[in-house]
Design brief:
Helix 1 runs parallel beside helix 2 and helix 7 crosses helix 9. This protein has about 250 residues and is α/β, with parallel strands linked by helices. The chain has an eight-stranded parallel barrel with strand order 1-2-3-4-5-6-7-8, surrounded by five helices. The longest helix is centred in the last third of the chain and has 19 residues. It has a single domain, classed as TIM Barrel, CATH 3.20.20.70. It binds 2-phosphoglycolic acid.
Length: about 250
């Protein structure tokens, strides 16, 4: 059985003080939620505040990106070992906003994923098609390429540590959620790719999260799909009431 994972992607929101206030309110609301793993990914500078605030809870902290070198003259970048040393255990890789605004590619997704695994971080690797790609009937081809180039060359023991997030770009921050059926169809396709590459037992184990306008109002319907193993939540993870409602779906 795959345990659900509910991950919050805070993007470029909240200060350290706001991070602390969030957890003061959020932690009591999810104190009895053992049915799901819970991860929050704040901006880099607020990882220490988030780690400190969640020390005695089951909530784990992640970063939103990493660079693939451990150290060096790469102004403005942050490495996996730095993130791990700050107490985070997860990292989002290849988010569509990184691909869209910061020129990330499937090839750099692969480099980042390898770097994350090498230092003990659990990667949440994002894939998903744009509206134009969906309308052109290219969804499966896009997912296949993202999977094969971004993850397909990992060793099986590396792939075993991966969580995938299916995030259709047209659903992110737009209020347009994929229907549970549309999301599940993409998840089934991805699970088929995992099965073909890494074998059926691995395909059964890999968690595939859905992301894109997940809200307290639609989480139940999404989680009713056996193919959907949790959510990567942007906007609705910024508020303790709404993210706890999602965790406690
Ligand atoms: P959203 O973002 O929930 O605000 O649509 C999801 C994401 O970008 O991971």
């Amino acid at each position: 059985m795959r345990k659900p994972l509910m991950a919050g992607n805070w993007k470029m929101y909240k200060t350290a003080g706001e991070t602390k206030s969030f957890f003061e309110k959020f932690l009591p609301l999810v104190a009895v939620a053992t049915h799901a793993d819970v991860v929050i990914c704040p901006p880099f500078v607020n990882i220490p505040a988030a780690v400190e605030a969640t020390e005695t809870s089951r909530v784990e902290i992640g970063a939103q990106n990493l660079y693939w070198k451990n150290e060096g003259a790469y102004t403005g970048e942050v490495s996996g070992p730095m993130i791990f040393a700050a107490g985070a255990r997860w990292v989002i890789i290849g988010h569509s906003e990184r691909r869209q605004y910061f020129q990330e590619t499937d090839a750099t997704v692969f480099q980042r994923t390898q770097a994350a695994l090498a230092c003990g971080l659990n990667p949440i690797v994002c894939v998903g098609e744009t509206l134009a790609e969906r309308e052109a009937g290219a969804t499966e081809q896009v997912l296949k390429t993202q999977f094969e180039v971004g993850l397909g060359s990992l060793a099986p023991e590396q792939f075993a540590k991966i969580t995938i997030a299916y995030e259709p770009v047209w659903a992110i921050g737009t209020g347009k959620t994929a229907t549970p059926e549309t999301a599940a169809e993409a998840h089934r396709f991805l699970r088929g790719l995992i099965s073909a590459k890494f074998g059926h037992p691995q395909a059964v184990q890999t968690r595939i999260l859905y992301g894109g306008s997940v809200k307290p109002e639609n989480i139940k319907g999404l989680m009713a799909q056996p193919e959907i193993d949790g959510a990567l939540v942007g906007g609705a993870s910024l508020d303790a009431d709404s993210f706890s409602a999602i965790v406690n779906f």
